[in-house]
Design a protein that fits this description.
Elements: H1 2-21, E1 24-41, E2 44-51, E3 55-65, E4 68-79, E5 84-85, E6 94-101, E7 105-114, H2 116-120, E8 147-155, E9 162-169, E10 177-187, E11 190-200, E12 204-215, E13 218-228, E14 233-245, E15 248-257, E16 268-278, E17 283-294, E18 316-326
Antiparallel strand pairs: 1-2, 1-3, 1-18, 3-4, 4-5, 4-6, 6-7, 7-8, 8-9, 9-10, 10-11, 11-12, 12-13, 13-14, 14-15, 15-16, 16-17, 17-18
Length: 327
């Protein structure tokens, strides 16, 4: 009798747990992205395996009723070529918690990835390798230094194709407060974006505009960025294009950064040619050639380099073949 009662209690507990779990869900996701590259920085050439922003993440939501949901994201970046942590923080890519409602929008708190201003502009037109690795956009300037920590964010609901994002990063123990504002607009094949970043304490600001248009097998995009500071102004522009044919994608993009105000020969150019072959929706093989042409007083660096970055006036070139798998 005691055994039957114990089994009955265990069964009820299991059903209750199942009912609770049914109200929420957790998704495990990630990306592994590696290339074999021949890189040249200045007059030095090296060959090696390069990681392109591999990560693993967990995200979930709980239905609280009436359209209200609790949401979380934690995302860890790692280097698949060495097995080490990317950066110094384990959940450095993202760690946020918040609430959302279809009518009132969403609020998030925590450590956020690159600003929504960046996602609305430069990231949106970086189609060939998701703005990662040695062919990443070297010319876009992060006023907010990338990730926003100790941040509060609000996202509006999408209305008539428009969506807005506001982020405010509290300085807590530092002297700089970062903020970001972005607007996205989608209307069929047309996609537009605006982004603004500012860092109080340094008086650095940026404004960027993006446009992308899909025309059958062709996709055309570009952005313009204006950066200002206490003693300088700088303009940056980039164009990108893609032609899709079956499982193949052919990519080309080019960027031009002007001189930083008052400093001659401090601009740069960047060119990339890329080819992707999609083996499935989640796996592709690809190849690209990229070059950053720095003027005498510039040292723009896309990152993911084998060895040290460029000195002023040194150029960067890389030819790469790689595999990317999403899960």
């Amino acid at each position: 009798m005691l055994m039957k009662r114990s089994l009955f209690i265990a069964a009820i507990s299991t059903l209750a747990a199942g009912s609770a779990l049914a109200q929420s869900n957790v998704t495990i996701y990630g990306r592994l992205n590696d290339t074999v590259e021949r890189q040249k920085v200045g007059s030095t050439s090296r060959t090696g395996v390069v990681d392109s922003a591999s990560r693993i993440g967990f995200k979930g939501s709980e239905d609280l009723g009436g359209g209200l949901k609790a949401n979380f994201v934690i995302e860890h970046g790692f280097n698949t070529d060495t097995g080490t942590i990317a950066g110094s923080r384990f959940w450095g890519r993202e760690s946020t918690v918040g609430l959302s409602h279809p009518t009132f929008g969403a609020i998030r708190l925590g450590n956020m990835p690159a600003s929504e201003a960046y996602f609305a502009t430069a990231d949106y037109v970086s189609m060939h390798n998701h703005d990662t690795g040695s062919s990443a956009d070297a010319l876009y300037e992060f006023v907010t230094t990338g990730a926003l920590q100790n941040a509060i964010a609000y996202t509006t609901p999408t209305i008539a194709g428009f969506r807005g994002d506001v982020q405010y990063s509290l300085h807590e123990t530092g002297t700089v407060t970062n903020r970001s504002f972005a607007v996205n607009y989608d209307a069929g094949p047309l996609h537009l974006g605006f982004g603004h970043e500012a860092a109080t304490g340094t008086e650095r600001k940026s404004y960027a505009f993006r446009a992308l248009y899909e025309l059958g097998a062709f996709t055309f995009g570009g952005y313009y960025e204006r950066t200002t500071g206490d003693t300088f102004k700088r303009n940056n522009i980039r164009f990108a294009g893609m032609y899709a044919m079956g499982a193949s994608e052919f990519h080309v993009n080019a960027g031009l950064a002007g001189d930083r105000g008052g400093v001659d020969a401090s601009g740069a150019k960047q060119y990339t040619l890329g080819y992707n072959y999609n083996l499935s929706k989640r796996t592709k093989v690809y190849a690209f050639y990229t070059k950053v042409d720095n003027e005498a007083n510039a040292a723009y660096n896309p990152g993911a380099l084998i060895g040290p970055g460029p000195a002023a006036g040194e150029n960067i070139q890389s030819f790469a073949v790689g595999v990317r798998h999403n899960f």
